[in-house]
Amino acid sequence: MTSNRDWNLDMVSISVCCPSCGSHQIANRGKTKNGKQRYSCLQADCLMKTFILDYRYNDYVTQILDSTMNSGGISAVVRELGINPNTVMNEIKKRTLH
């Protein structure tokens, strides 16, 4: 039994430009460990060689330190921030050893 279906496969195109120089001469440069696409700027005079289009930086360090300094336990910090307990322990260890 064969059925005739009309498939509408639209391609999505994203215009990528370098956040440093604004060039549109971009090449794919693999993926990060989280699966996000990494790009490379092909301009010779560009200062930023690789970048991620949707980069997000979560400033957990200051939140971890603030919460632990205010007598919050590690498990409370983990629940509050929704992060791994190992992350909390590693950041505390980094700050206490220096």
UniProtKB/TrEMBL annotation:
This is Transposase. Residues 11-41 form the InsA N-terminal zinc ribbon domain. GO terms for biological process: DNA transposition. Pfam families: Zn_ribbon_InsA. It comes from Crenothrix polyspora. It comes from the Bacteria.
